[in-house]
Give the backbone structure.
Amino acid sequence: MEPDHQQLIQLLPLLPVLAELGRTEHMTETAELLGVPQSTVSRAVARASAIVGMDLLVRDGRGIRLTPAAKTLLPYIEAALEDFQAGLDRVRHESDVVRGKIGVSFQHTFGEATLPLLISAFRAQHPNAVFELRQGPRDDCLQELARGDADFALTAPIAPEGKGIRSFALYREPLRVVLHYRHPLAGRTSLHLSQLRHEPYVTLPEGVGLRALGEALLREAGYRPRIAFEVQESTTVRGLVSAGLGYSILPPAGPGYGTGQFLPEAELGLVEVPIESDLAFRQIGLAWRERSFEPEAVRRFRELVVNRGGELLAELVRARSGTP
């Protein structure tokens, strides 16, 4: 180890004492401020003088005064301590961000990929960030946001702005008719929903965003559906359709979720067919409450979603929408 570097290592623990002594120029006061015996301050000064190779303090009557060498060193000592304090403050600030809890209410379908991708990107910057996640129907998510039980609501359709609620559109994806793979219309490149007017419909509960969107499309087609099954989540919807028990309206399943995977011996399988309507899509977005004080962790997650959400979800959007 180089001699100068060795001296620096020996001096580092003494810098706070030297800085305080340079400010007070009084042994007793320095000891009291640092909460150490006066002898500790004396030994620190003696050791620092030995390492530097010249006196840093001299007696001046009953007091002490800094030598020219000490006065030269003092600004550098203070600057070093200030830089370290700035670094320490930043680390503690980051730690506070990490410790902050971020509450997100989201619809079930966004737990497959959308929300995990956003959280993964945030935790890449803040590895110990804590999230409190609640999933449920769209109406429940928005109510939790309004009550203050959640910091964010990830929903489709996107929450309307107003009454202290702000929102940001992340992406949109098409809605498709889900049919049994042997259905007479399964091979169509697109279809009009009126062609399914008399067939059993598989839907989700009231308050779920997808149910409302599907019903709006069916109204546009000029009829109310004959509901055969009402189930809690889209995985079961797909299962019932794959068994030939009805049709449904859902967003694309995306890669890895069974579309096009058939079990001919069991007559299980389904296909997704584009809908002939300009309304056949859903807008996914994040909503939050305006408030006078926003926790740092919440603010940073919101900024990540607003500034980078589109980029982070671009590949997912392409895969689920079937676009190149």
Summary: The first strand starts at residue 57 and ends at 60. The mean pLDDT is 85. The radius of gyration is 33 Å. The longest helix spans residues 68-99.
